[in-house]
Task: structure prediction
Amino acid sequence: MNTADTLTVPLYRAAHGRTGDKGNRSNISVIAWHPALWPLLVEQVTPEAVAARFALRQPSRVQRHLLPRLAAMNFVLDEVLDGGVNDALNLDAHGKSLSYLLLGLPIRVPADLQQHLAGPAQD
Amino acid sequence: MPTHPPPLLIGCAAGFSGDRTDAAGPVVDTLIARLSAGPAGQQAFLIFETLAERTLALAQLRRRADPDAGYEPLLDDMLRPVLARALVAGIRIVSNFGAANPRAAADHIARMARELGVPVPRIATVSGDDVSGPAQRDLLRERLGAQMPLPEVDALRVVSANAYIGAEPIAAALRDGAQVVVCGRVSDPSLAVGPAMAYFGWAADDWDRLARATMAGHLLECGAQVCGGYFADPGYKEVPAPESIGFPIAEIDHEGHCTVTKADTPGGLVSLQTVKEQLLYEVHDPAAYLTPDVMADITEAQVEQLAPNRVRLTGVRGHPRPADLKVNLCHEGGWLAEGEISYAGPRAEARARLAADTLRKRLPRLNLRVDLIGVLSVFGDDAGRTLAQLPPGDARDVRLRVAATHAERAQADRLTREVMALYTCGPAGGGGVRSAMTARLNTISCLLPRQAVPTRHELLHGATA
Result:
């Protein structure tokens, strides 16, 4: 919901990230484009929000690790890859595309922080 | 004032088996240029990381078929263009391209040197990672026990079992004068830690320095992924000339801190963003990144852009290495069958959905995964929950993909035949059938105590040259 003060945007305008896999476990980094956006990410990109975003893939556990000096966080999603690279039937058995599933999460950005958002505004 | 060796240069020219094979040339040229402009006594290494989780099992299968095979199939393409130049310049080479047969890879490199007209280098092989033999079998059975009952372990058709070993045998081989070190399953960062231990003379319990070099190795181990590869996203993350990315070169100082740079080509980018993404790649708990060499803690890590394409990493700490080593065991896992067919134009999505429904009814004994490529594919789950909650739409160019596994080839192959039969029996206008049958390899992991996995190195060539 957009108000005069707050803009709702996809997470990729505030952060970038990459997915890695080991077995049936996926890790996804979320890295603020600007340190000023970091508290916003900590507040809104919670383990609960990520678990909800991946609900249909049924991770057995979602953990969040914070790296404040890098303005980054690392999510670890257990049993989210249908067995992983050797077992999954998915074309992307590694789950390499999953960072972009997370980066579509809507977040609310107050007016004073919108100058730090990346990318074309119409996105 | 104490004097320290100048920073060690380590370039990485491959991040996996199948990486660009022309990456090494610019890395070696850049290392040579920096050595000639650098302080006396500075050394440089070239590493190639070519083993993923199942690459080794595939190599083991090739070795069974041919005792002289089983190492990196692209070894010649990767190494021949730079081997002579590197050796002449004193750049030493460390890699896991030995895969399931380091000795045969070493022989190949010796042959390559003779053909190139340079003296055959001192080549060392590192062994001990292969734990599939009788010596460790009982222990392996015991450690797998919780995951898999004993009779099933015995019945498993085991293709490979390898422990992730560490940097110590690499460092030992280098201290013995090896110019080329050929490994199988070593942990990826150890390819950089071994050279750093040998060059700086670090002890195997110098946890902080080992942890820092480990993270340098971690940044290097995926090749271009730290310097603009796997990063570009138009409008958000621009990478210059992605067709000619200069692969990474790390400068590791005597404390183990590293500065990430890249080979001098027009392509690629070393920025705070590229380094942060790779630093966290395949990391779980950042306070406990485990390798055979050390437990690295990057929770206080910091990155600083020193100059264009120069990023320094500091703040990494180390804790004692784990007592156990991780083992991956690969076993035959039946067959994967896949089939695809395209629908385009009006009602394409409806026709693709009808084709999927038809296949489900024709193949009741297979658990089919269904993808509608162009509508929903890789984000979906195997059980189809994601697709089921997606209301039918009106996509006009849809490729239906179905996949299933079965222990028996003939059962799995029914899927490919049913997809083919859609040509005449399925919905209107289906075209472009492709199908594939792939033998599967499954992996299970366990831990073995370090003492049960003795490692060694052996100088095979050029030792007396």
About this structure: Chain B touches chain A through 51 residues (CB under 8 Å). Chain B has two domains: 8-129+164-322, 329-445. Chain B has a mean pLDDT of 95. The longest helix of chain B spans residues 409-425.
